[in-house]
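Repro:
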Amino acid sequence: MPLLLSAFAAGLVFGLGLILSGMTDPAKVLAFLDLAGRWDPSLALVMGGAIAVGLVGFTVARQRTVSLLGSAMKLPSARHIDRRLVAGGLLFGAGWGVAGFCPGPALVAMAMGHPKALLFVAAMLVGMGLFELVDRRRKA
């Protein structure tokens, strides 16, 4: 139960942070990505803050073998850049640039009742399902 409550609290804080920072507003995100037009640099501060928090969090996590709640620490181990990573990053960036959403903010915006977010999440789930099908066939 403590693990479930901590996951809920973390998700709630993350969602509130996305709302307060404007990450759930596609117009604000697209203005950040519009370097040649009316660029809005405010989301760079959001990203910088997230990177700083992540840097501290991963530094502390690397020094531990178990979490504060007693679960095993499972940190990413991959250190190489391959075609799949680059292609995935390009697709992610293109989707973000076209829709103004990335997965986390889209889920929060969908919960807030934004119809475009519902369409984005549906398309995202279809894309994830298609990837799983193709990946399983490729490995078989």
